[in-house]
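User: Could you check the structure of this?
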Amino acid sequence: MLSLCFHEDFSVSEICHNNAHISKSYKTFINPDFFYVYEMLEGLLNPVLYPLLKLGYTWALVVISLLVALIITLIYKYTTNQSLMKDLKGELKAFQKEIKELKHDPKKAMAVQKEMMQTNMKYMMHSFKPMLFTFLPIILIFGWMNVHIGYYPIMPDQEFSVTMNFKDGTSGNVELIAPEGIIVVNGINQEIKAKQATFFMKGMEGKHAIGYEFNGDTYYNDILITYEKEYVRPDKSVRKNDVNTIKTNLEPVLPLNLGFHKFGWLGSYIIFSMIFSSILRKLMKVY
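Assistant: Sure, the predicted C-alpha cells are below.
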C-alpha cells in the first residue's frame, strides 16, 4: 500500500511512499510478518485517529491529511540540507527560464535540458532521505484509513447484499449457509444469472462467517455488523473452480464532492494532501 502525499514544486512532484479494533481479515491486506508490527502499533493510532471520525468522514480526512502533511514537511525540513535544496531549486528555475529563451535553438535547448535533468536528479536524491523516517508511520496511518474510511459499515438489522461472481458459462444454483444471527431475505438458494448470484441479508451485531455451497464445494466470507466505523474487506478473491470472487456490496464513502465529481477517500486524501503540503512548505520556507 502506498500513501500518496504530493509536495508541489515547480519541477518535481515528490511521491511520499507513504482500528477501535482491526478485523482478522485485514491480514490479507499486508504481508503477514508486517501485520504483527501493525498489531502492536495500532493501539497508538486508535486513541489519536478514531475520535476524529466523530467529526464525520470528510472532516476526519481533512484533519488526518493536515497532520500527515505537517509531519512530512517537518521531517523533510530537518532531515535535508535546506541551503543546498534552495540552491538546486534556484538552478532548476534558471534552467527552465533558459530553455524557454532557447526555443529558436532546439540543439542548445536540449543541452540545457540535459543539465537540468542532472540537477533535478540531485534534488530528488536528496529528497529520498526523509522517506526513511516517514515510510513506516505513513503506511500505518494509510492502513488505518483503509479500514475505517473506505466504506460505510453494515449496521445491525440493516439489509445488505453479497454477490458471488462466476466464470463465463457457469450455471446452477448456490445455497447459502447462514450462521446464527443472520437472516436471509431473498431465500437461501439463488440461481446463477449473468455470471452472478446475489443474496440479501440482515443480522445481529458481530462478525459472521457466511458459507456458500456450489457444486459440492463450500466458500466462506466474513461479514462485520457493527455500530462502529469499521468493516471487513469487501472483496474476496477465490479463483477456484468456477468461482471468481465473493463481494460484500458495501456503500463507499465519498468525502469530497466537487459537483462535477465525487471522490473516494483515496482521491480526497490526495487532493487535501497536495493543498496542505503546498501551503505548509511555503509557510515554513521548505525547498
